[in-house]
UniProtKB/TrEMBL annotation:
Superkingdom of source: Bacteria
UniProt cross-references to InterPro entries, sorted A to Z: HotDog_dom_sf, Mitochondrial_HTD2
Protein name: 3-methylfumaryl-CoA hydratase
Organism lineage: Bacteria, Pseudomonadati, Pseudomonadota, Alphaproteobacteria, Acetobacterales
């Protein structure tokens, strides 16, 4: 463990269990913007419409003041997030249970709790995994409980490339697949809808020079959302939950393959493959009867 992380751990452990509540009105204009971004008919939604159950992740943005934004575009640590002393932050995965769905017009809340902070030594160097537990409620009931993992990583030396886990091939024998262009406009609109200002998703010079990526980076939240959308087209029943792991970065402008196995015992494996056939993200979805 690095000296900085070791020194910070007593303070960081004090963050575990801290919580706050973010309120959100699920307004029709916002829903229609999201629908348009996802290539759905905006006018198919009206007052009282029930939203797809996984759309809760498109609301409840942290709205930091401009003076609270750090050099990477994220809110500075210590305002909304624990002050983990590693400069790079990326989504890593999630575990979600679905109990209901938001509706247009809801006065909803998201209760955010720091669930865990775990320092680890990975193949790519020192990391810290931050797990946030998010509980979505509206109309007096809990609609979803979502645990989201973010990985904090060391800085990239000047001129070096960002390290990533060794590639593995995507699974063979998919029962279905969709080719999806990670269009820069789609990624921009997703960032706008979710109020995500992380510079690696829109600033190519920053992504290359500061973080060692070859191009602007696809948003992992959007990757997971697109996989769920594709799987729901083949779903045997209502979505009850899913787990997701982001294995390797995808890049804006690539055409990726979203694919999955046939449902079995109410579960479906699904994944995203990079253009070279390597596995970028994997999910397991659970459906009701």
């Amino acid at each position: 463990m690095s000296d900085a992380v070791t020194a910070a751990m007593p303070e960081l452990r004090g963050w575990i269990g801290r919580s706050r509540v973010v309120a959100e009105e699920i307004t029709l204009p916002a829903v229609r913007r999201i629908a348009g971004m996802l290539d759905l008919d905006p006018d198919s939604f009206g007052p009282g419409s029930t939203l797809p159950p996984h759309w809760f992740s498109l609301f409840f943005a942290d709205v930091a003041r401009q003076s609270e934004i750090g050099p990477d575009g994220h809110p500075r640590r210590g305002a909304f997030l624990p002050p983990i002393p590693l400069p790079r932050r990326m989504g890593a995965g999630r575990r979600t249970r679905i109990h209901g769905a938001l509706q247009v017009g809801d006065a909803a809340t998201k209760t955010i709790e720091v669930a865990a902070i775990e320092p680890k030594q990975a193949r790519t160097g020192q990391i810290v995994v931050l797990t946030m537990r998010q509980t979505i409620s509206a109309r007096g009931v809990i609609l979803a409980v979502d645990e989201f993992d973010a990985v904090y990583r060391e800085a990239v030396p000047p001129g070096a490339k960002s390290a990533s886990t060794p590639p593995v091939p995507a699974p063979d024998g998919a029962a279905w697949s969709d080719a999806i262009l990670l269009d820069p406009v789609l990624v921009f609109r997703y960032s706008a809808v979710t109020w995500n200002s992380h510079r690696i998703h829109y600033d190519a010079d920053y992504a290359r020079d500061a973080e060692g990526y070859p191009a602007t980076v696809q948003n992992g939240g959007l990757t997971m959302h697109l996989i769920v959308d594709a799987a729901l087209k083949r779903a045997p029943g209502p979505l009850l939950g899913f787990t997701a792991r982001l294995r390797r970065p995808l890049f804006v402008g690539q055409t990726v393959t979203l694919a999955g196995a046939a449902p079995q015992d109410g579960k479906m494996a699904a994944w995203a493959a990079a253009p070279d056939g390597t596995l970028a993200a994997e999910m397991e979805l659970e459906f009701g009867a």
